């Protein structure tokens, strides 16, 4: 029995836990007990599920395990930001970044090992795509986080394109928001995407979580040089799709705009942004660029970013400058996992 590959319970929805209980001949109410242990009490072993009979715990242990795994490494910034490295299969690693800020604490969560999108400015894209994360591996970044009980917000902005792994991401989002799971308001969660059209439509219609679109240039031709996904998923088409949904109430739509020195930081780009997003209930987040090795891009200075923000806001497009955090530990995802995977490859050679 010990050689059987055991399935993780962490990351299962209530419906899946009901299937486990049914398959093992346990009472139907066992599923809710399992969910309580996994998502409310956050146990790390089946033996800790003390309101299950010893017989049922032994039965569970034959085929299942909790599936919680602590981070294998961490880097701490002078500003309190912590980047955690999690193992996700053999020689695969992903990062989650914990960002404390006064009364808020945000966790940036990964959805894939590597990424297919290959954005010019992204270290994860340089890795290429390796594997999809399971709901277990997504939820584990939260459940096994040392600071998990301080979290107020989740952003799906880590390694990978969430809409390219939508089945597993939606399962994880259900667990985060359902009464049987973490019972968080969808307003505490934001998913970021380059805008995969089919997945975008399904996400908007299946979830109430906030949405952030990686924009970075209002000009399709220039955006294509920064983000190859523009060839298949045009920003103009994405914006037209978004116009078909109501973002004027609880749910927030935002556009992320990394400001690159001499690339997209001048007044003509601000005017094109206004033209592209006119009439859409949204906001723009201006982001400082964190330099990465081998990429000839620089971040714009703060004076330029303030000028852009003030111009856009004065013309009716609410715009903020996102505070830059963890720059001394390369908090933008991809750096730590790249180093770890290269080290593991070296050990195997």
Report on the structure:
- With 349 residues, this protein is of the alpha/beta class.
- It folds into 2 domains: 7-65, DNA polymerase, domain 1 (Orthogonal Bundle), CATH 1.10.150; 73-344, Aldolase class I (TIM Barrel, Alpha-Beta Barrel).
- 34% of the residues lie in helices and 19% in strands.
- It has 12 helices and 14 strands.
- It has helices at 14-23, 30-40, 54-63, 123-127, 135-143, 166-177, 197-206, 220-226, 235-242, 267-277, 302-314, 335-348; strands spanning 7-8, 64-65, 73-76, 82-87, 93-101, 104-108, 112-114, 129-132, 153-156, 189-193, 210-214, 253-259, 283-288, 319-321.
- The strands form 3 sheets. It has a 10-stranded mixed beta sheet.
- Helix 5 runs parallel beside helix 6.
- The two termini are 33 Å apart.
- Residues 345-349 have low confidence and may be disordered.
Strand residue percentage: 15-25%
- The assigned structural class equals alpha/beta
How confident overall, as mean pLDDT? 93
- Our count of domains comes out at 2
Q: Specify the number of helices.
A: 12
Oligomeric composition of the shown chains: single chain
Number of strands: 14
What is the 3D shape?
elongated
